[in-house]
Design a protein that fits this description.
2 domains, 13 helices, Glycosyltransferase_grp1, DUF1972, glycosyltransferase, EC 2.4.-.-
């Protein structure tokens, strides 16, 4: 196949996420935004879907071919077994390039290597550091991430800091392609009235309620503050969990747990009308929830990490707090006392979404990688 391979001849398989058009987490969003744009550019896109999550199983949606593969349904094996079956199926198909998301799927690159199928993997996140993967789980993700650098033809990271880490830990070069954002200037304010909320009457947290997103730190610090505003916590976990139960048992009238918010218009309104958005994510690279906050014009209060510094351009588009209760209390106090500065953060948030966070630009970068891999087939 020649280097000048046209988009209209290119066949790409995408696997490792929940499927399409299922949108819940960052990888699912990437599959949707990237897949739809590639399809419009004439690429034949196949997405592997987790069979158990789809009641209806159409063969095509929006021109994207869908394959529904099974998995062993358990907390620790679902994702990996689904990816394993999907990889085997993709290797036996006529696709030119296989694109995999999630470093946990690193070892499966040996399958595509055996079948001589060109591959790229988006490794994202320091999974082995996340508190939920203690012991064996942590060791597996570190090993899997290392194997990804051995078996896949092209490694993709979503931030410069993650690129540095992969070079330092695994001596592996990677390409930085960020996640994209869909900025919006307005929302339907009536959507937040179901929770008795008004414009700028609350702070917001959005994300899975897991320890490495530090909702506990933010909530406990907020409870110690003197703010009269509410703290709205959007998110949950799909299983019984002591960490989440403990958070929900904190007694304070200012705390509002909404659970999952699946209506995108409601979620946009929650972002767009908040006084400030708390971002406690610790181990990711380019975070989709942060991109939403920037795109919807939020005043961002973020945990001080290298990843968050990179996204907020070292404080240009947000304020930082440390992993310390008093630091949370102090940043709430600062936000309450400086409404004009908070307003300025809201007004300038979208300008932080530089070209690298534009989905069309992101797609063009991925397409360049895929064409290069197909050309070497």
């Amino acid at each position: 196949m020649s280097e000048s391979l046209k988009s209209s001849n290119l066949k790409i398989a995408i696997l490792g996420a929940k499927g399409y058009p299922y949108v819940y987490g960052g990888y699912d969003t990437l599959v949707k935004e990237l897949g739809e744009r590639l399809q419009k550019k004439g690429v034949e896109v196949t997405v592997y879907c987790h069979r158990a999550l789809f009641k209806d199983k159409p063969s095509h949606v929006n021109g994207i071919k869908l394959v529904y593969t099974p998995a062993i349904e358990s907390k620790s094996l679902t994702q990996l077994t689904h990816s394993f079956v999907s990889m085997c199926h993709a290797c036996l198909s006529d696709v030119d390039v296989i694109f995999v998301v999630n470093s946990g799927n690193g070892p499966f690159g040996i399958i595509s290597r055996i079948f001589h199928k060109p591959t790229a993997i988006n490794v994202d996140g320091l999974e082995w550091l996340r508190p939920k993967w203690k012991g064996l789980g942590s060791k597996y993700f570190y090993w899997a991430s290392k194997m990804a650098t051995k078996f896949y033809d092209h490694i993709i990271n979503d931030s410069v800091e993650m690129q540095r880490i992969y070079l330092e830990l695994f001596n592996a070069k990677s390409t930085v392609i960020a996640y994209g954002a869909n900025p919006s200037l307005s929302s339907d304010t009536s959507k937040i009235r179901k929770w008795d909320l008004e414009n700028e009457s609350y702070y917001l947290i959005v994300g899975r309620l897991v320890p490495d997103n530090n909702a506990d730190l933010i909530i406990q610090g907020y409870v110690k503050s003197n703010s009269k505003r509410k703290l709205v916590i959007v998110g949950d976990v799909p299983y019984k969990d002591d960490y989440v139960d403990n958070l929900k048992s904190i007694e304070d009238d200012r705390l509002l747990f909404t659970g999952y918010v699946t209506d995108p218009k409601e979620l946009k309104a929650l972002y767009h009308n908040c006084y400030g958005y708390f971002h406690g994510h610790e181990y990711g690279g380019t975070n989709p929830a942060m991109l939403k906050a920037m795109g919807y014009g939020c005043a961002i209060l973020a945990l001080n990490t290298e990843f968050n510094q990179e996204m907020l351009q070292n404080g240009k588009h947000g304020w930082y707090f440390e992993k310390d209760l008093n630091s949370v209390v102090e940043i709430v106090d600062k936000a309450e006392k400086k409404p004009e500065e908070m307003k300025k953060l809201r007004e300038t948030a979208r300008s932080g979404l530089t070209q690298k966070y534009n989905w069309d630009h992101v797609t063009d970068q991925y397409l360049q990688v895929f064409k290069s891999l197909a050309g070497k087939k």
